[in-house]
Amino acid sequence: MSLRIRLALVITLLFIAVLCAGSTYAIFSARKTITEEIQSAAMLTSNMIAASISTIQSSGDLDLFDELLYELGRLEMTRHMETIISLDLGAGSTQPLQPAPTIDADAPRWFVNLVKPPVMEFKRVITSIGSSGTEIIIRADPSAEISETWLETRNFLLLLLLFTALANLLIYFILGRDLAPIEAILSGLERIEKGDYRLRLPKFTSVEFTRISERFNHLAGVLLHNREENRRLTRRSLEIQEEERRRLAQELHDELGQSLSAIKAIATSMEQTSAAADQSAAESAGIIKNIADDMYGVARGMISQLRPAALDELGLAPALQQLADDWNSAHADTFCHLDIKGDCSMAADVVKINIYRIIQESLTNVARHAGAKNVYISLAYAQDGDKLALEISDDGAGFDPDRTRAGMGLSGIRERVDSMGGEFHLATGVNKGVNLTIILPVEPV
């Protein structure tokens, strides 16, 4: 769950709690108000009737009493009050118990049940006038008050609910806008993880995120500088290594080759001159000549490993073809298929020798670890991008890329590609073979 959704959910729960608290407060406040209002009206009405009856009884004027009963009869059902008059009650008798009034309020039943006050009923029995008694019952009727209170409470609750919804939407929108830089920062970190150190984050509206962006850009700049410096050092190290190999190959060719040739010539001369006189000396001279031939063969192999002469004399494509042919001759169980498309002579010398070394190391890996029947090497030149695309694959055992074995040479190949400013992609799996895709610029970056 994202941070935006979590924050919005917390704020929504907070608003719901506030809404519930506000609703509870509004309902209890409405109940209290209705109870006080009805009780006040009932008490006022009862006291006024009692005062009127007391005045009439003091004066003894029956006409006034009849007029009072007439007026009360006209006001039998008025706002908040219900008046019940029973005439000519016998001495000591009372009016039969009246059922509780039905609350006919314009409000939902649940609201009526929550806010309705207790039943309020006041009785006045008059027996001093004539021989019969008169009972006056004043009963509170909260219907009108509940209707008015429901209207006010409903408007308050609707306003609170509308405020909650609008505030929640506004906060969700603001959170989405203010937290949007997090996605950009996470995307930038992923690209940095993949080696895209040229990425720069923009300035954000938030001061905190702007500071993070500035530190991120500084970090990316430092990483880019360090990578370029490492590339330069690695490339220079490889160049020095190749130069040293070239020098050693030249010295082996010039010094050791000449010495072996001289030894072989002397041994041949000794063999010829002593063939008739001393058979043992002739045999020794022949052994020396054979040893010289073997040493010369070993020296030629070392020279070829140190610096392929075909690369300098014939070019990249013939050197690779010779490498594939020599490898096929030495490995009868595995066949190397070489496919070169386009003119690769436009590549710089340092790129050529690195391509040669990468293929050489890859073939060594196949021979040691793959157990493959076929190796496929494809080298293509893309004129529009000034890049060389090298793909090396086999149908061997493959391996788990998360548990790469030490000494497989992949780290060396990756270092060579990175030093040229190229791209390295590895695809493999157990019993799925190995596929290397390498993109190198014609001129090293």
Provide a quick synopsis of the model:
By secondary structure, the chain is α+β, with helices and mostly antiparallel strands. The chain has helices at residues 3-59, 62-74, 109-115, 143-178, 180-193, 207-273, 279-306, 309-313, 316-330, 349-370, 410-419; strands at 77-78, 81-89, 121-126, 133-140, 335-341, 374-382, 387-394, 423-428, 434-441. Helix 9 packs parallel to helix 10 (349-370) and helix 10 (349-370) runs antiparallel to helix 11.
Verbal overview:
With 445 residues, this protein is of the alpha+beta class. Helix content is 62%, strand content 14%. The protein is built from 11 helices and 9 strands. The protein has helices spanning 3-59, 62-74, 109-115, 143-178, 180-193, 207-273, 279-306, 309-313, 316-330, 349-370, 410-419, and strands spanning 77-78, 81-89, 121-126, 133-140, 335-341, 374-382, 387-394, 423-428, 434-441. It has a 5-stranded mixed β-sheet with strand order 5-6-7-9-8, covered by helices on one side. The two termini are 42 Å apart. The model has no long low-confidence stretch (mean pLDDT 76).
Topology (SSEs and partners):
Elements lengths: L2 H57 L2 H13 L2 E2 L2 E9 L19 H7 L5 E6 L6 E8 L2 H36 L1 H14 L13 H67 L5 H28 L2 H5 L2 H15 L4 E7 L7 H22 L3 E9 L4 E8 L15 H10 L3 E6 L5 E8 L4
Parallel strand pairs: 5-6
Antiparallel strand pairs: 1-2, 2-4, 3-4, 6-7, 7-9, 8-9
